[in-house]
Specification:
Helices cover 61% and strands 14% of the residues. It is α/β, with parallel strands linked by helices. It is globular and about 40 Å long. The termini are close together. The model has no long low-confidence stretch (mean pLDDT 96). Bound molecules: adenosine-5'-diphosphate. Adenosine-5'-diphosphate (ADP) binds next to α2 and α3.
């Protein structure tokens, strides 16, 4: 089982890549954001608990996220691996993922990072609000808060990834097709 992380700030294009990559490589696409939005839509207990956090653009607790991840991992035998999208987002989540993979005798095989400048991120999210109707994309203050949350809590992970030698930063300000080809050649070169 392979384990790939697609990394980057909100609006970088992680989800778009994750959908096509998971199809091509038979990976289980694990988007913690999609899972949380589904819980909110269904009005579950968890959904009710996390709704205000997503509306404000702040993070859900590491405990809740790890429970989600463990549950998905335990029910994905038919896949060749996992593609994490929007996870890990804190150092604690990264360390918890390391421990969990160790228990399964697995490791993070690559971290693919989409690097996009801030004004492009904001433009993309506001445009996505019109197409997909995500509440947290429609409000400029929430969009900015999410970028700030990323800078403070998620960006520090890069230093750890770099030390491990499997961190691949890409210019995410090109096209979906171009990034897809680049990521495929990284994954193919590792196999
Ligand atoms: P984006 O990357 O565009 O911000 P996501 O769909 O990944 O969108 O996340 C949306 C929201 O869901 C986040 O702002 C946060 O509140 C919550 N969330 C998603 N993934 C995590 C995570 N790994 N840890 C904590 N909160 C998360």
């Amino acid at each position: 089982m392979k384990n790939y992380i697609i990394f980057g700030p909100p609006g970088a294009g992680k989800g778009s890549q994750a959908v096509i990559l998971s199809k091509k490589y038979n990976l289980k696409h694990i988007s913690t954001g999609d899972i949380l939005r589904e819980e909110i839509k269904n009005g579950s207990k968890l959904g009710l608990k996390v709704k205000t956090l997503l509306d404000e653009g702040v993070l859900v607790s590491d405990e809740v996220i790890m429970e989600i991840i463990e549950n998905v991992i335990d029910h994905s035998d038919q896949y060749s691996g996992f593609l994490y999208d929007g996870f890990p987002r804190t150092l604690n989540q990264l360390f918890a993922l390391d421990k969990m993979l160790e228990r399964h005798r697995l490791k993070i095989d690559a971290v693919i990072s989409l690097v996009v400048k801030e004004d492009t991120l904001i433009k993309r999210m506001l445009r996505r609000a019109e197409i997909e109707g995500r509440a947290d994309d429609a409000n400029i203050d929430v969009v900015k808060k999410r970028i700030e949350t990323y800078r403070h809590q998620t960006e520090p992970l890069i230093e750890y990834f770099e030390k491990r030698g499997n961190y691949f930063p890409l210019d995410g300000d090109t096209t979906i097709e171009h990034n897809f080809r680049e990521i495929c050649s990284i994954i193919d070169s590792l196999n």
